[in-house]
Amino acid sequence: MRELSLNILDIAENSITAGATIIDISLTLKGNMLEISIKDNGCGMSEEFLAKVTDPFTTSRTTRKVGVGIPFFKMAAEMTGGSFDIQSKKGEGTKTTAVFDITGVDFVPMGDIGETMGALIMHAPLVSFFLKVDIRGEIYEFDTMEIKDVLGDDVPIDSIEVISFIKNTIKENFDKVNGGRII
Amino acid sequence: MKSIEELKAIKARMQAEINTRDAVGNADTRIVVGMATCGIAAGARPVLNTFLEEIQNKRLQGVKVTQAGCLGMCKLEPMVEVYVPGKEKVTYVKVNSDIAKKIVADHIVNGKTISEYVITNS
Question: Which ipTM value was assigned to this complex?
Answer without folding.
Answer: 0.88
